[in-house]
Amino acid sequence: MPVTPASLGYQTDLMLLGLQGSVIKPRAGYQVVRTPANPMFYWGNFLLLGGPPAPGTVSSWVSTFTQEFPGAGHVALGVDGTGGDAGDQPELAASGLAVERNTVLTADTTNPPPHPNEAAQFRMLDADADADWLAALELQEAVYSDGESQGWEGFPGRRLQAKRQMQAQGFGAWFGAFKAGRMVSGLGVFGDGSGIARFQDVDTHPGHRNQGLAGTLVHQAGHYARKEMGAQTLVIVAEPAGPAIRIYRSVGFRDAEIQVQLQRQPPG
Q: Which residues constitute the domain of residue 42?
């Protein structure tokens, strides 16, 4: 059986990946996470180490990753823990691994944002409505891509299809803010019934930011998670220096721990 991580960030990551059909297998000192349906999803295909790499072991962990994922161009090593320790920085750099530290925030409940948006239509997407999910895909492509759509076979499309299936199975929901029929902000919140719910992909279209859309959505989705999913702990992960973390704090989330990821991009 998978080992429950000490990190609430990784605990909820594995929870969501398991609900999406990812395969999680324990090994001596680490866990292997595979997502066959989306092999290009780095953080769906990674090793979760039991703690920071011990001195002199970074290269061997890279070799272990290569053995577990022989066809992968990337390297992705999660580090279980709550304080942000990643291991020896020069050794990590020598192996080409970049260190990313994100803030894990939690809340028992959410508050309305300081400036709620009252102009947009906020609602849960219909799991059976193709148009709703196409609108969600178009939003994600506007936020993350260079303008060229990859459709449902691209990385964002595959991830979104997995979330749609999770909603259809009753594990949570995707929400959107709509203006003139166009989805301009969106997010998901999901859980396995254990009392913990994790927010996913809080996105706002570049042309509609600073309008209170994301904060209003987070608050409404938090209320849904509490009332309809029985969630007692809400979890969200954010870049510590990014603009989104201010939004989460403004609706009641508080910093709980630091999540560490070690990653090497494919050449080129």
A: 8-103+260-264
Of 212, 221, 223, 224, nearest to 250 by C-alpha is: 212
Residues 48 and 98 in one domain: yes
CB atoms within 10 A of CB 6: 13
Cβ atoms 162, 133 nearer than 8 A:
no
Q: Using an 8 Å Cβ cutoff, are 27 and 33 in contact?
A: no
Residue 47's nearest CA partner among 71, 69, 29, 30 is 30
Element (H, E) at 136: helix 130-144
Verdict on whether the full-model pTM lies above 0.90: yes
Whether the CA torsion 18, 141, 116, 103 is positive or negative: it is: positive
Whether residues 62 and 181 share a domain: the answer is no
What does the pLDDT look like over 188-237, one tens digit per residue? 999 999 999 999 999 999 999 999 999 999 999 999 999 999 999 999 99
Number of domains in the chain: 2
**How far is Cα 19 from Cα 197, in angstroms, rounded to an integer?**
13
Query: Quick one: how many helices (H) and strands (E) in the chain?
Result: 7, 11
Burial class (CB in 10 A: 0-12, 13-18, 19+), 244: middle
CATH number at residue 212: 3.40.630.30
pLDDT in tens, 157-200: 888 999 999 999 999 999 999 999 999 999 999 999 999 999 99
Domain match, 63 and 148 both? no
Residues 135 and 234 in one domain: yes
